[in-house]
Specification:
Layout: H1 16-24, E1 31-32, H2 49-60, H3 74-85, H4 90-93, E2 97-103, H5 104-119, E3 125-129, H6 133-141, E4 146-150, E5 152-153, E6 158-159, H7 161-169, E7 176-180, H8 193-205, E8 209-214, H9 228-235, E9 240-245, E10 257-263, H10 267-284, H11 290-301, H12 303-334, H13 342-345, E11 350-352, H14 357-367, E12 369-370, E13 376-378, H15 387-401
Parallel strand pairs: 1-12, 3-4, 3-7, 7-8, 8-9
Antiparallel strand pairs: 2-10, 5-6, 9-10, 11-13
The structure holds (2S)-2-hydroxybutanedioic acid (LMR).
Length: 408
C-alpha cells in the first residue's frame, strides 16, 4: 500500500536549509552570513554570562521538571510585559494585556494565527514586501489568506513609506497587518518614530489589527528604544498582538524562549482572549518549555542579572555596528565606485544587499560566503577574521556588475 507517493517533494527551508549546507561545507575559511544568529568575535554563538548565572541558580534550586501551566511560567510572563511595555504601563496595570510564554516567537505567531482564524473569521493578513519567509507560511498554514503591502524600496535601499501608508489606508476593516517592531527581517529598514506615529491614525481609523513581530529587541537602538512601536500602540489605546522572542537577545536559540502578548480593549475582554489562547496552545503543543521560562524569569526577575544582561545586549549591538562600518569601509576601499551606505543606515542583524541570486550563489560557490538567496546578509556573523574575505567576495561580484544607477 502506498499512501504518500503523490506528495510534493519539500524544497527545503530557504534559511535553515542553507545553514545545514554551511555546516556540511568542508572549507575552513567559509563564512556564515545566512541564518539570523549572532556570532561573537571568535565566530561562536555566545553563552551570555547573565544566562549562565541564571542556569546555575536553576540547577541549585533543584531539577524537577513538572509541566508548566498552559500559559507558561507566571514570573516569565510578567517579566515579558515589563520588557515590552515598560514597568507599570497603564495597559498592563489595568489588566488589558494577556501574555503567554510560547515555544519561541514562532510558536506565539502560530498560536496567534490559529486564534485569529477561529475568532476573527474572514480577516486576511497583510505582510511587508518582503518579509520573513515563514510569516507567509505560518498564516497560510493557519488558513488565513496572505497579501503584501509595499515596504522596501529596492532602488534607494529605504522604506516606501507613502506607498505603505496608502496601501494600509485602503484595507478592509479588521484586516491583520503584520509589522516588524524593529530590525526588519530581511531588510534592516525600519520606519522612523515619526513614521510609526503616522501609522497610528490609519490603524485606528481603518480598524486594522496590528500584529507586531519583535524578534530582535536590543539589536537596533536599545532594549527600551526597540520597544517604541509596542509602547506607542499601547499608549494610543489600540488593540494588537505582539509575538516576541529571546532567541537573539539572550542567545538561547534552541531553548525556544518566546511570548505572545495581546493588548485588548478592557480586562473582561482580556480574560476571554486569555482563555481561548490557552485552548489554542493546548491543542497545539500543550504547554511551553520549563527551562526557557526559568531562564527568562531568572534573568529578568533579578535586578543584578537584568542589568548584566542589558550590558551584554548593548555589547552585541555595538559589535554588529562596528562590523557594519568595517564591511562598508572595506568594500569601499576595494570598489571606490560603490558606496554601500545601506550597511550603515540599516539596523539590527540583517542588511539587504540587493545582490541577485546568481551573485549570492557565486559568493557561496567561489568564496564560501553564505548569504540567503534573497540577498539578505546576517551582519551579526561578521568578525575581524572574516570581514576581509566577505569584502573580497562582495567586491568581486559587484565589480562584474558595474555600479548601479545610484552607485549602489
Ligand atoms: C532568520 O530569519 O534567519 C531567523 O529568524 C531564523 C529562522 O528561523 O529563520
Amino acid at each position: 500500500m502506498s499512501l504518500f507517493q503523490h506528495l510534493e517533494p519539500y524544497a527545503g527551508d530557504p534559511i535553515l536549509g542553507l545553514n545545514e549546507a554551511f555546516q556540511r561545507d568542508p572549507r575552513p575559511d567559509k563564512v556564515n552570513l545566512s541564518i539570523g544568529i549572532y556570532f561573537d568575535e571568535e565566530g561562536r554563538i555566545p553563552v551570555l554570562e547573565a544566562v549562565r548565572r541564571a542556569e546555575a541558580r536553576m540547577l541549585d534550586e533543584g531539577g524537577a521538571k513538572p509541566y508548566l501551566p498552559i500559559a507558561g511560567l507566571p514570573a516569565a510572563r510578567r517579566a515579558v510585559q515589563g520588557l515590552l511595555f515598560g514597568d507599570g504601563h497603564a495597559a498592563v496595570a489595568s489588566g488589558r494585556v494577556v501574555t503567554l510564554q510560547t515555544v519561541g516567537s514562532s510558536g506565539g505567531l502560530k498560536v496567534g494565527a490559529d486564534f485569529l482564524h477561529r475568532w476573527l473569521p474572514g480577516s486576511e493578513v497583510w505582510v511587508s514586501d518582503p518579509t520573513w519567509d515563514n510569516h507567509r507560511a505560518m498564516f497560510e498554514g493557519a488558513g488565513i489568506p496572505v497579501h503584501a503591502y509595499p515596504y522596501y524600496d529596492a532602488a534607494g535601499g529605504g522604506l516606501r513609506f507613502d506607498a505603505m501608508l496608502e496601501a494600509l489606508s485602503a484595507l478592509p476593516p479588521r484586516s491583520i497587518v503584520l509589522l516588524h517592531a524593529c530590525c526588519h527581517n530581511p531588510t534592516g529598514v525600519d520606519p522612523s518614530r515619526e513614521q510609526w506615529q503616522r501609522l497610528v491614525p490609519v490603524l485606528r481609523e481603518r480598524e486594522l489589527l496590528p500584529y507586531l513581530d519583535l524578534a530582535y529587541q536590543g539589536y537596533g537602538d536599545g532594549i527600551d528604544e526597540d520597544a517604541y512601536a509596542v509602547r506607542l500602540l499601547a499608549d494610543a489605546g489600540l488593540s494588537f498582538f505582539v509575538a516576541s522572542s529571546f532567541s537573539k537577545s539572550m542567545s538561547v536559540y534552541g531553548e525556544r524562549a518566546g511570548a505572545l502578548s495581546v493588548v485588548c480593549s478592557d480586562a473582561a475582554e482580556a480574560a476571554l482572549v486569555d482563555g481561548q489562547l490557552q485552548a489554542t496552545v493546548r491543542r497545539n503543543y500543550s504547554s511551553p518549555p520549563i527551562h526557557a521560562g526559568g531562564i527568562v524569569a531568572h534573568v529578568l526577575g533579578d535586578p543584578a542579572l537584568r542589568a548584566l544582561w542589558r550590558s551584554e545586549v548593548d555589547a552585541m549591538r555595538d559589535r554588529i555596528r562596528g562590523m557594519r562600518r568595517a564591511l562598508h569601509e572595506r568594500v569601499g576601499a576595494r570598489l571606490p565606485g560603490h558606496d554601500l551606505g545601506y550597511l550603515l543606515s540599516q539596523r539590527g542583524m540583517f542588511s539587504y544587499t540587493g545582490l541577485s541570486p546568481a551573485q549570492v550563489d557565486r559568493m557561496r560557490e567561489q568564496f564560501g560566503v553564505y548569504l540567503v538567496r534573497s540577498g539578505r546578509m546576517c551582519v551579526a556573523g561578521l568578525n575581524a577574521g572574516n570581514v576581509d574575505r566577505t569584502a573580497d567576495a562582495m567586491a568581486a561580484v559587484l565589480a562584474d556588475e558595474g555600479p548601479g544607477p545610484d552607485g549602489r
